[in-house]
Predict the structure.
Amino acid sequence: CIMRKIKGRASHHLRKEFPELLKIPTLWTPSYFVSTAGNICTETVKKYIEQQRD
């Protein structure tokens, strides 16, 4: 999965730059959101982010 690779790579670089992040078991939730720029409104993104906090 492409998103798993992106998150893994980002996690690696973030933990390298900020060693205190090594104490956290994971930096990301398992979910992700993808849409083309022309097909999405700000409200949809906000709603998705709010749902991730639950």
Summary: The CA atoms of residues 4 and 22 lie 18 Å apart. The chain has one domain: 2-52.
